[in-house]
Design brief:
By secondary structure, the chain is α/β, with parallel strands linked by helices. It has helices at residues 70-73, 100-111, 130-137, 149-161, 163-166, 168-171, 184-191, 207-219, 229-244, 253-262, 275-288, 317-327; strands at residues 2-9, 14-16, 54-55, 61-62, 78-85, 120-124, 142-147, 174-178, 263-269, 296-302, 306-308, 313-315, 332-337, 354-361.
């Protein structure tokens, strides 16, 4: 397992990844001072904060020295975000790795903070939890970081790692919840059964629960029959896992009400890699994008080109499937965003195959 530090400048609202360190190297931790979160109306000014020597404007080494001048004393405080991640993984555990899509999405969040500041955010397939943490630091009012049962523990570990460094900014904003693409609507609906505001004696439901159930019921007609026999087995397994999962990550009725009324931004990074999961993800979008809050999805993904030696041809695999479904579907409005318009401030290779999409529902929400 690797632990990587990421530096976030409080003054410039910029987020940087330092030079990669060996797995056994000690993780640098920077002291935090100043306000608990960047001001939502500040304009980003990008500068690199990293460990070791930097270079000046002439390209010469700039050796770090102690604070001496008044200018040095005014240097902006910055945060260090620590993320635990695996250097490699199996298909079932891809969420344990840190993927380029999450770095691109983090860059988008910090260069477009007004898009999430003061809003409700839900990240699908949150993995290590990096984007959810960045969304919180970008000023989101509440963030739900979701993934399947055995991955959400890693997102929770990221929150725990940063509890002292980032404090209330993250711990009171980010909530880790289990959400399986094969079972998302049922997980939200079952949450309403625990609502203490519903009158069990007279069977009178709380208004928030009525709204959630009405919304989820109305989306059933939008779901497509994509599930084959093998997928149905996966769905059954997901339901069984949901019933036995850690209560710490279960949805509450208050969560379901918040998703229905207050989540206006959905995030997803590198969740397109398998045909079955892609179809389930699209069905999850049919549900969430049609909530009463009418959210928009911002998705970062790396298109992986597969070459078939037998057929001597290239294909885009699961992303090709996702692209075909969304662009040829009457349920979605799809817009490809300009990746080059997002400042490249993180230390990673931004492949030409990295793409950004904005997806909304075609005015079929429940009001």
């Amino acid at each position: 397992m690797h632990e990587s530090p990421f530096h976030l400048s409080n003054k410039s609202s910029s987020f940087f990844r330092p030079t990669p360190q060996p797995a056994d190297a000690p993780c640098h931790t920077a002291a935090r001072s100043g306000p608990s979160a960047p001001a939502s109306n500040a304009q980003p000014e990008f500068r690199i904060l990293q460990d070791g020597p930097e270079v000046d404007s002439d390209g010469d080494l700039d050796i770090p020295r102690g604070r001496q001048s008044g200018k040095d004393k005014e240097e902006a405080p910055y945060w260090t975000i620590r993320v635990q991640h695996e250097p490699s993984s199996t298909l079932a555990d891809v969420g344990l790795q840190l993927w380029a899509g999450s770095l691109l999405l983090s860059e988008w969040l910090l260069s477009r903070r007004r898009m999430v500041a003061g809003k409700g955010v839900l990240e699908l397939g949150g993995g290590t939890g990096l984007c959810s943490v960045v969304a919180a630091l970008a000023g989101a009012k509440i963030v739900y970081c979701t993934d399947v049962e055995h991955i959400v523990y890693r997102a929770k570990a990221t929150l725990d790692l940063n509890a002292n460094e980032l404090g209330k900014t993250v711990s009171e904003t980010v909530r880790v919840r289990q959400m399986d693409f094969f079972n998302a609507a049922q997980e939200l609906e079952e949450a309403c059964e625990t609502c203490d505001k519903c009158d069990k004696v007279t069977a009178t439901a709380y208004a928030g629960c009525i709204e959630v159930r009405r919304w989820l019921s109305s989306t059933q007609c939008l779901l497509r029959a994509y599930v084959d026999v093998e997928d149905d087995e996966d769905s059954g397994a997901a339901k069984e896992l949901s019933a036995t999962s850690d209560s710490l990550f279960r949805w509450t009725a208050a969560d379901a009400h918040a998703v229905a009324r207050g989540v206006t931004v959905l995030l997803a990074a590198d969740v397109i890699y398998d045909d079955k999961i892609t179809r389930a993800f699209v069905n999850t979008l049919r549900v969430l994008l049609n909530s009463p809050a009418h959210p928009a999805l911002i998705m970062a993904s790396e298109i992986r080109i597969n070459f078939s030696l037998s057929e001597r041809s290239e294909s885009t695999g699961a992303f090709g499937l996702f692209h075909a479904i969304c662009l040829n579907d009457d349920d979605f409005n799809c817009e490809q965003l300009d990746v080059n318009a997002v400042p490249h401030v993180l230390d990673y290779i931004r492949s030409p195959q990295l793409v950004l999409w904005r997806i909304t529902a075609k005015q079929r929400g429940v009001s």
